[in-house]
Amino acid sequence: MPNMQKEKTKMPEQEPKVRARNFEEVAQGYTEEMAITEANRCLQCKHQPCVKGCPVMVQIPDFISLIAQGKHIEAYEKIRETNGLPAICGRVCPQEEQCEKLCVRGIKDEPVAIGRLERYCADYAIAAGVEPITCKCTLGKKAAIIGSGPAGLTCATDLAKEGVDVTIFEAFHTPGGVLKYGIPEFRLPKSLVQKEIDSLVEMGVKIETNMVMGKILDINDLKEMGFETIFIGTGAGLPSFMNIPGENLNGVYSSNEYLTRINLMKGYKYPEFDTPVIRHKTVAVVGGGNVAMDAARCAMRLGAEKVYIIYRRSEAEMPARNEEIEHAKEEGIEFNLLMNPVEILGSEEGGVTGIRVIRMELGEPDASGRCRPVPVEGSEFDIDVDAVVVAIGQSPNPLMREATPDLKTQSWGGIIVDEETGATSIEGVYAGGDSVSGAATVILAMGAGKTAAKAMLEYMTQK
Amino acid sequence: MYKILRKKTLSEQVKLMEIEAPLIAKKAKAGQFIILRIHENGERIPLTISDYDAEKGTITIIFQEVGKTTMHLGTLEEGDSLQDFVGPLGKASYFPEGIKKAAIIGGGLGTAIAYPQAKELHRLGVEVTSIAGFRNKDLILLEKELHEVSDKVIITTDDGSNGNKGFVTDALKNEIESGEKFDLVIAIGPLIMMKFVSQLTKQYGIKTIVSMNSIMIDGTGMCGGCRVTVAGETKFACVDGPDFDGHEVDFDQAMRRQSMYKVQEGEACNLFKGVE
């Protein structure tokens, strides 16, 4: 008999007041008992709607059933059949939009906590030191992956499993992409990301860091080096600015710069780590996505007295996950909704002293179906802040396409691919993730990496 | 890891290192830069590629000890290795067609960065006047090398200790006023020096290229920490530059942005001196 408790089994979390001042993980994960209790809420539906909501088709009822039986390692292996990064997905996927959205239990009550259970299995297996999948490059085929974010890592895993000799080229000094530089430690511990990557290396995947592709090597070089097929997973790392006066004042950051200093360079541990981060007193973060929430929560953890989210629509339209919005509010972040910055104000020395915003009201829905925000004439007012973080989105980095003129791209920079296969305009070259779609989610990038891996394998074996 | 093959002290605080980096050496061009990180807890700092040898597979950098990371770098010896070495980054220098006569202006350490430009123009058959300025005669760099690639070399010192007192702008103005017709001026050095050179050449309508030395983190265009205003537009020095038209750069803003971490830079420097 399944557990018919209406709500998800609660997951222990650090107290908001405590966690708002440290970088340790907020959500602390299920105990074995909690995991089994939650696993028993799953009805084991025959038609498995949840699986259809997962971009990498994790066999959800199967792994949950294994947890219920106490077979946690087996449950982990079941997930890993289709998903190479379960400890990460269990933490950062927007499950409410994917697997959990389609859960039958969610029609009347709360859906089964699929993400929390996935995370539980992965953490359990990593702590137990589970054996990596070993692959020995038996196929005699070489593939190159450009970029080591979620898309590249997934594509590499799937190819390595089939015996392909895979090399990943990464521009930064450490692999992981947004998992390392973007998503903060308190949502996704970096040691854990590294463990998932280490297990890939143990599978036989080679990772070359400090390789800015398009500068040090290009597609032709890779082909000459014997890579028969190439996957481009370079993400959407080019920050957008608002183009308003004052944007180049000291104390105005792109979210990418702010988060890279803090997460990748560990600026929050300065001076133990050399990269400095200024601990601002009052910070405005412009934007309403997960990146904005991450930046705001980092600013709070660096000791800010006041942190504001400034967003031009209302809370209902915010693209951030509900859980992240809730966490941010609990930690004392103030939401200034229906407001848009018009100018950043500065002192004579060039520092930020405030941000001038205009009130907005929601008008008619636009092409995306969201109500278009319209400025209210004459409603400008100033908010005192000493730093502004701009988190209004990113587009694909131009380095790769500048070096590869025959790679067809959209006017906004996204690489044009065949949706079924991820094939680009160049034979043997595939692409996926944010470099194709623009900034989206970790799991969608993983799905794209999987799709491309399948097509790349076919291309290599049929050639 | 990237091995230090050769180290040479050029003046009290200025050192040259030849680093083993074959792939970068194959692609490097004059005007580009690298980013390095000494160790796991280190920061990423940009340094101009001052020379490259594709056959030997090496990149030469010249740096001045101005803070924690460069001081630490200065303590490393031949045979030691750097954790990370990334490049070649930025756009290669682009020289407009039809240049017959050029003045290359180097200020302090900027001379080491200007040198490969002088070398390249000389190779292209351009008549090169090199003007290099230093605080005093003990800090003079690359004098012999500059003579090898220039038709004329003028070395100035702020205190006159080499017998030629004055700033590079004074020397440049002298040359122009005495009838030298430059088609191009390249100025590389501290922002304040590049600003004054650009102001001077603007009066004479001489095309001027400067090399911006913004604060950088990734050096690949993903953060915008290095942004500068050029002709009223925001540009990223790491991917759109580092070379820009000196008459279009907002130098005052660039100088303010460069001083953003002054307090932290001082602290880190003191900590380093304390433990060493």
Structural summary, described in words:
The complex is a heterodimer of chains A (463) and B (276). Chain A contains 18 helices and 16 strands. Chain A has 463 residues and is α/β, with parallel strands linked by helices. In chain A, strand 8 (306-311), helix 15 and strand 9 form a beta-alpha-beta unit. In chain A, helix 2 (32-39) packs across helix 4 (60-68) and helix 13 (255-264) crosses helix 14. The longest helix of chain A has 21 residues, at 442-462. Chain A is globular. By secondary structure, chain B is α/β, with parallel strands linked by helices. Chain B contains nine helices and 16 strands. Chain B has helices at residues 22-27, 68-75, 110-123, 143-149, 168-177, 191-204, 237-240, 251-258, 262-275, and strands at 2-11, 14-20, 33-37, 45-48, 51-53, 58-64, 81-82, 84-89, 101-107, 127-134, 152-157, 184-188, 207-211, 227-230, 233-236, 243-245. In chain B, strands 11-10-9-12-13-16 form a six-stranded mixed β-sheet, sandwiched between helices. In chain B, strands 5-6-2-1-7 form a five-stranded antiparallel β-sheet. In chain B, helix 6 links the parallel strand 12 (184-188) and strand 13 (207-211). In chain B, helix 3 (110-123) runs parallel beside helix 4 (143-149), helix 5 runs parallel beside helix 6 (191-204) and helix 6 (191-204) packs antiparallel against helix 8. The longest helix of chain B is centred in the middle third of the chain and has 14 residues, at 110-123. The chains are: A alpha/beta (463), B alpha/beta (276). Chain A binds chain B through residues 171-173, 209-210, 212, 215-217, 237-239, 241, 243, 247-248, 250-251, 253-254, 256-257, 260-261, 265-266, 270-276, 278, 349-350, 397-399, and chain B through 23-24, 27, 37, 41-44, 68-69, 83-89, 217-218, 220-225, 227-229, 234, 239, 253, 256-257, 259-261, 264-265, 267-268, 271.
